[in-house]
Amino acid sequence: METRFEFLKNLEKDLAVLARQEQRRLADSAKPRRATHKRAWIGVAASFLAIAFAIGVLAQGGGFRSSSMSSAGGSFSTAGSAVGGASHDGPIPAATPQQQALDGWLTHTGDLSYSVDTAAVKNGVSAPPADLSKIVRDGAIAVTIATGSFSDRFKQVVAIAGSNGGTVLSSTTSGGNSGTFTLRIPAANFDKTMLQLRDLGTVDASEIHGQDVTAEYIDAKAHLKIYLSRRKVLYGLMAQATTISSTLAVQNQLEQVQLKIDQITGQLRYLDNQVAESTIKVDIHEPGAGPATTDDIRNPSLARAFDRAVQGFMNILAAVLIGFGYLIPLLVIAGLIYLVVSVVRRRSRRTTTDG
Amino acid sequence: MDERSDTELLLASRAEPAAFVELYRRHAEDLLRYFARRTLDPEAAAELTAETFAEAFESRRNYRDTGVNGVAWVYGIARHQLSRFYRTGSIQARARENLGMPVHDLPAEDYERIEELVDLAPIRDALVEALATLGEEQRDALQLRVIDELSYPDVASQLGCGEAAARQRVSRGLRRIAIVLQERGLSLATEVE
């Protein structure tokens, strides 16, 4: 409304100026408040995640277990195997008879890791059954030995190999205080040998790989049976051949079948050999010498690094999820208490105001 | 033209202070008239109007919508201001000082315009009686201005003083009379609700 009073016009101008100043002040104060709120919420979310993570870790027993090679302390890792030798990254498939047998003296502690029940071994519990025919098992171990004991431990490694019916396939020494060995040990004595090697000193790292070749073996056996039958038929045809050309044709076929039979027989012999004996790579070194050559143990690979990264991520995610499981009911209870307290306070304030 | 109601403007002014200016535009002249008819003093009416709106602006966040028109809340503040004026005979500038608002002198042309807002006819008899309670200077000034209805230049001429001094004498005299009439229980104007 337009007024005729100069005084009111001046007052309107003053109020308009005041309103503009107030608007600016409100805008200025709103920004940092929003930022503060945002920071506060981020802080709350981060704290919530951290608490959930901590609870998750505690709920899982205080730590993670790595499926890859672990340090000393009696834990082995296994690399699950798939038919045909492809590495297996997921949970272990249904246990083979051999693995079930191992469970008798290896205490299962997780999807992919086993810890050695050394007490059971020391108490004379028998080793797993000798039938490891369809599993190719390899191992690697790095041990730090006492200073000045390299020569004795060297002999001990050879003795361990011999006492378990195996041999030292190759050995390399470096500087008189470290060396590496490749042992071939009967599969039945593989685990026993690994345990004896652990007693050489302080285990830096150890690793066991298992490769199930049962399917490959059965497949080869089936093919052999077919080719043997075919050879028998060809022998019959050969006996009935009356012309030179038919004799040559059958002979040609027979040679090819025989070649296949030889190949398959060799493959089966190789598998038998692989299954019958395990390879163990041993590194022993005095303190400060460092492993001589432990390529299989130490060399990082991108694939393994990726596997470990994924596993680490999943472990943390699992810990946080487990933590949420504990926290969410607590938060719901806390929220209900807060609501009740708020309502009671509001009512008492209203009562005070009305009074 | 803002279509919002007075209540909506008052509520909106918390986050949008400019809405209060719109509320002022709608009601400033009515409030000035309200004060003019109760104080009889243009100066006091202007001062009280300014202080009332300043206090309303300052405490607008305390307003609660109870279903009554928002401007009634402003008139509530006005009544408090008025009762303090009757009690002390002076007008505070606390809210304006808090807000840093300047205190303007009443422009000369507004004196007569505000006086026009005051309908003295119903109280003229009481006024004559009340004149006896004033000092000589204020009584003479009021006599010339209110009873004889002379212009301010003429009042100043007859009193032998400046025009501004004549206005001040009339203003102070009317203020004094308003307070006296209020003390005697004479209603100067109908309450605005």
Protein described:
The complex is a heterodimer of chains A (355) and B (193). Chain A has 355 residues and is α+β, with helices and mostly antiparallel strands. Chain A has helices at residues 6-59, 97-102, 118-122, 150-163, 190-198, 214-240, 244-276, 295-298, 302-354, and strands spanning 75-81, 87-88, 106-108, 113-116, 135-144, 167-174, 178-186, 202-212, 277-285. Chain A folds into 3 domains: 1-63 and 303-335; 75-212 and 278-299, no CATH class; 216-271. Chain A contains 9 helices and 9 strands. In chain A, strands 1, 2, 3, 4, 5, 6, 7, 8 and 9 form a 9-stranded mixed sheet that branches. In chain A, helix 1 packs across helix 9 and helix 6 (214-240) packs antiparallel against helix 7. Chain B has 193 residues and is an all-alpha fold. The radius of gyration of chain B is 18 Å and the shape is elongated. The two termini of chain B are 24 Å apart. The chains are: A alpha+beta (355), B mainly alpha (193). The interface between A and B is medium-sized, with 19 and 29 residues.
